[in-house]
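Researcher: Structure for this, please.
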Amino acid sequence: MAGRAQPSGPAGSGGGAPGLLPLLLLLLSAAAIIPRGDGQNLVTEDVTVVEGEVATISCRVKNSDDSVIQLLNPNRQTIYFRDFRPLKDSRFQLVNFSNSELRVSLTNVSISDEGRYFCQLYTDPPQEIYTTITVLVPPRNLVIDIQKETAVEGEEIELNCTAMASRPATTIRWFKGNKELTGKSEVEQWSDMYTVTSQLLLKVGREDDGVPVICLVDHPAVKDLQTQRYLEVMYKPQVRVSQNYPLQGLTREGEPLELTCTAFGKPQPTDMRWLRVDDEMPQHVVVSGSNLLISNLNKTDNGTYRCEASNAVGKSHADYMLFVYDPPTTIPPPTTTTTTTTTIPTTITDTTATTEPAVHGFTQLPNSAEELDYGDLSDSRAGEEGAIRSVDHAVVGGVVAVVVFAMLCLLIILGRYFARHKGTYFTHEAKGADDAADADTAIINAEGGQNNSEEKKEYFI
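Model: Predicted structure, token format:
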């Protein structure tokens, strides 16, 4: 075996540790029988581990021929030679040893363990390959800091989330409820560690009160690491006026009305009052806390009633517009119908025989709220009803005038007709007087005149 290249002994055998001489003798004897390494290959993989957990390093040989495998640390100190551990670090434990694999575990990994680890195969020539251990460090602490513990509606507040001492640097994400927001991040490096701070500016409203703001960390060493703070927002009261009685329908004269005012705010409103917007509050109106009662409605109660509520943030109000309608009445049905004929000159409509006639097909409008629709009503209904009634009276007056005028025209036409067809009686007394030049001549020439008197002589015997 003389003349074969002899590999050197293991490097860094632990700094003068006991048993070094037997190890050297073992190495020399092994080297004497090592064949050439043609066709042999070393295989390993990089390792990523979270600080404090276990890292496993594996050195594998393809096409093994019983060559010696050893593992060295980043300082090139031998961790394992075959199944023997020269390095006195009990965190390294042998997991598996065979002719084709050397597998070693490292417990309680720290940042100082990060680096390159070498797998060596004693062939001729020797083979070497390295694997890299990367240590991940999750954030030590995750804190949300709010500029103001209690905000006012409409105010912009600042929130800061800090993830300390991580490796690599973390990514911070913001959420308000289920909605993701965008913040601004800054990274600071201390030695091999990173501290990340993200700032979020948020304009709050009353809907944000009690909603959680979440700071979530994206980091390969940890999952679902987050912290949250609940927003506390103060806001003005929300005021609502509801009608207790009547539950539905119209507010009629002589009936009662009861209103209730409700207000919600933060802090809860403590001051609540009723007032009349367009006039003074009637004396018969009873106000008891949040309730307003009118026992006997009348037309003078028409107007706008307002409920005001206030708290430390501000004041709000809600209005109720009251319109009092006429009490329900019973209208008798019509007793006479209108007769229509096609002979206009000879037909006269009798307008004095009925108590409430229907005029030219127009139906009489209701005189009270009993006949109105109980749908959506507004204060303009009374004005519309009055306008309809005034239009109805004008229509009736116009129709009556037309009828009277038609009757007068008919009388005039009948008078002229009878005047033209008056009877004429014909005599022969004026016969012959048509061509006379004047009245005296006509009398003389007329039959029966003086010239013809001889023809009408009478003879007495």
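Researcher: Any notable elements?
Model: The first strand starts at residue 41 and ends at 43. The chain is about 15% helix and 35% strand.
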